[in-house]
């Protein structure tokens, strides 16, 4: 199935690039500069959360503008209906803050990559056993690096996308503690750059993270 093959490739893209950009709560206009800057900076996976106004339009815009440079996903996917609408808008992968087995089942059946959010060992294993090939560890800003390191010891077979709290100063600690990839939000999008539509500034911020992610820790 062709769509399923795309999904498989996206896991490979995630594990190779080791970064996902997360955009939340910005305008459709600001998303143009954000998308341009992030793709120019080398980001290959970008998601817009579905609790962002005009999220579906942003997904469609990004697909049209950045096809071939970046893959576009939907975040904060809380139920199957939201998943269906996101895919219809052009989302190539889905991300959630929680483990909803029906959403995972829908994604697996339709060949769409999904990285569900989990916090506890029970949730992480449940998501993985349900078919998620990468599980998002969330909220990392609250859980902290020691938690990631400790949970990877028994669950080293499950790739974790550590999301929350990553900055240029600490992202190497995320990788060193066992994160297969890191989800990045505000660190990539300085408010002043967004306000000014300065995609070059955003590209420079993005490039710094992309360079660090290339270094194997």
From TrEMBL:
<keyword id="KW-0119">Carbohydrate metabolism</keyword>
<dbReference type="Pfam" id="PF01081">
    <property type="entry name" value="Aldolase"/>
</dbReference>
<comment type="similarity">
    <text>Belongs to the KHG/KDPG aldolase family.</text>
</comment>
<protein>
    <submittedName>
        <fullName>2-dehydro-3-deoxyphosphogluconate aldolase/(4S)-4-hydroxy-2-oxoglutarate aldolase</fullName>
    </submittedName>
</protein>
<dbReference type="InterPro" id="IPR013785">
    <property type="entry name" value="Aldolase_TIM"/>
</dbReference>
<comment type="subunit">
    <text>Homotrimer.</text>
</comment>
<comment type="pathway">
    <text>Carbohydrate acid metabolism.</text>
</comment>
<keyword id="KW-0456">Lyase</keyword>
<dbReference type="InterPro" id="IPR000887">
    <property type="entry name" value="Aldlse_KDPG_KHG"/>
</dbReference>
């Amino acid at each position: 199935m062709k769509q399923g093959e795309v999904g498989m490739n996206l896991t490979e893209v995630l594990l190779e690039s080791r970064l996902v950009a997360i955009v939340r709560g910005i305008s459709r206009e600001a998303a143009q500069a954000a998308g341009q800057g992030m793709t120019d900076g080398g980001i290959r996976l970008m998601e817009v959360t579905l609790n962002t106004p005009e999220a579906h339009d942003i997904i469609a815009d990004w697909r049209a503008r950045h096809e071939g440079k970046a893959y576009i996903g939907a975040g904060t996917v809380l139920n199957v209906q939201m998943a269906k609408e996101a895919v219809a808008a052009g989302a190539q992968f889905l991300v959630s803050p929680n483990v909803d087995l029906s959403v995972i089942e829908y994604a697996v059946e339709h060949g769409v990559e999904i990285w569900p959010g989990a916090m506890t060992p029970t949730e992480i294993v449940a998501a993985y056993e349900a078919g998620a090939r990468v599980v998002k560890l969330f909220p990392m800003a609250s859980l902290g690096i020691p938690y990631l390191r400790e949970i990877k010891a028994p669950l080293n077979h499950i790739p974790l996308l550590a999301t929350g709290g990553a900055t240029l100063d600490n992202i190497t600690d995320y990788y060193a503690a066992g994160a297969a990839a890191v989800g990045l939000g505000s660190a990539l999008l300085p408010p002043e750059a967004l306000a000014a539509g300065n995609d070059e500034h955003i590209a420079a911020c993005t490039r710094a993270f992309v360079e660090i992610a290339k270094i194997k820790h």
